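Final report, results section. Input specification for complex C-07:
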Amino acid sequence: MTDETFRQAAQAYGDTIYRVAYHAVKNQADAEDIMQTVLLRLLECDKEFESEEHLKHWLLRVSVNESRKLLRSFWRRTSVPLEEWHDQAAPEDGQRAELMRAVMGLETKYRLTVYLYYYEGCSVAEVAAALRANPSTVQTWLLRARARLRKELSDDGEGEGSHYVRSAGLS
Amino acid sequence: MFDPQVYREACGKMTVPQDKLEEMIVMTQAKEKKVRRPFRAALIAAAAVAMMVVGVGAANPEAVQELFVQIATVVRVDEYRQEMVTSEGESITVLSIPEVNVENRDGQAILIVDEEERDITQALAEQGTYVYEKTTPQDTKLCVEVTGSAEQWEITVSMEEEGKQVGSFTTSSEENALAPGQVQDNYSVNEGVEISKAGEELNKEICVSEYDGETATVIPVK
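Structure output:
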């Protein structure tokens, strides 16, 4: 990858990589480390990306993998995590802050699933590919995540649209 | 109520400052020119370290000490094995294990070892297990054993050096989640030390779990 192509990709997807990592590790410093690693892997890779979508999904997958590595590391597992999502990510708006607090309170797999599905607009199949999970498992995670968010946010329900999973990517 | 629109707005505010991104781009380009990482996927590794002792309270994770050793040289012996020498003169043998996974493709179980795919559906159906083995001319052996089915599987990856098992781990289809420790829970070892600078007493065999080009994370072998 040329320096110029790399720079363009980093500018275009830097925030995406950061958000994925942040949803996984809930820590700004770790998320930035992961971002740097992902960028290095992008620069080093000899892959020919067929399209922007291809590049984006590759980056999503690598970001998830690098986040996984960090989460699995011995030091991380035996340390008390410094969860500082509210330091940076908490929006000033009360509703957004409460919602982000609820999302960040979910388990890692649910947080990433919610992020990829709702923010990145990935289909269930695409989320499954990024997380290396079965599509049916991702559907279950989405349902559970929403149920937990519903409970956490103490409302009466999400409305009709929230009770099904977008499955276009599965067909 | 979980409102996707509000969530998207909140996520949209999660950005990396432009100056920080620029710094990362410059640093990444500089690093790429200087360092080629010796590992692609160093999940676990086994190491025999002469004259090194992990001075850690073995059953007390809080007592884990951080040590740091600079890696002076790295010589690749074969595709799975590398010999490293630290700036302090200790030699470390590192075994890197490729990424392995089983994908369920319309009911077919596809074993992927280092991006090399093979259909193991029939073997799993008939024998309930599939074993992939590869031995290098230098006598380093990789063994990947899959049990179960395309939907529910378990993979045990182990490495042998000169006939002696030096590390293994097990993962399963249930562990696609990203919770910490899922893959490493069943390592044959459970304490770790991060090495980066000598100065502590070390004289025990260790496993290297990660190496980023400058520092290595190691686990003492029981």
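Helices of chain B lie at 4-12, 18-34, 121-127. The first strand of chain B starts at residue 45 and ends at 47. This concludes the modelling results for the funded period.
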